[in-house]
Specification:
This protein has a domain of 97 residues. Helices cover 58% and strands 0% of the residues. It has 4 helices and no strands. Helix 1 runs antiparallel to helix 3 and helix 3 runs antiparallel to helix 4.
């Protein structure tokens, strides 16, 4: 019968090794990680979509008509451009979807102590949601 005072030797985790053919992912350089490169590419695409949406916003919104334009009788558009508005909403929705995919992929990959969550992605998420809510409430 075993003695209560007999404890097995503690397990030493430092002696564990990865099987042959596998590389420790946490010690791998992030710039060489394929998923990290995809996440960074999606992040850049999402920011470019937001910039394109801002350009479309310029053409979709009603024109600002000054008093001088009224005085001289210069016409200006006082309603939203439907053609540009549908494209703007599509771009913002794609930007929001891309941002959410980026956040999910980053949360799956960030496991190191030195990994950062990415504040720029959160800012992009807030801007995309606020823009969509504002457009749906305004138009």
């Amino acid at each position: 019968m075993p003695n209560k005072n007999d404890h097995p030797e503690p397990f030493d985790e430092t002696t564990l090794q990865m099987p042959k053919g596998y590389e420790e992912r946490r010690s791998k350089n992030r710039k060489n990680d394929f998923l990290y490169q995809i996440v960074m590419g999606l992040n850049i695409v999402a920011w470019l979509l937001l910039i394109a949406a801002l350009i479309l916003l310029h053409y979709a919104r009603p024109e600002f008509i000054t008093g001088l334009q009224n005085y001289w009788g210069i016409e200006g558009r006082e309603v939203w451009s439907e053609d540009h508005l549908s494209d703007l909403l599509s771009l913002l929705q794609i930007c929001l979807f891309t941002t959410i995919v980026t956040i999910v992929l980053r949360s799956k990959r960030n496991r190191r102590k030195t990994d950062r969550f990415g504040v720029n992605v959160m800012i992009l998420l807030v801007i995309s949601i606020a823009s969509l809510v504002t457009l749906y409430m305004t138009v």
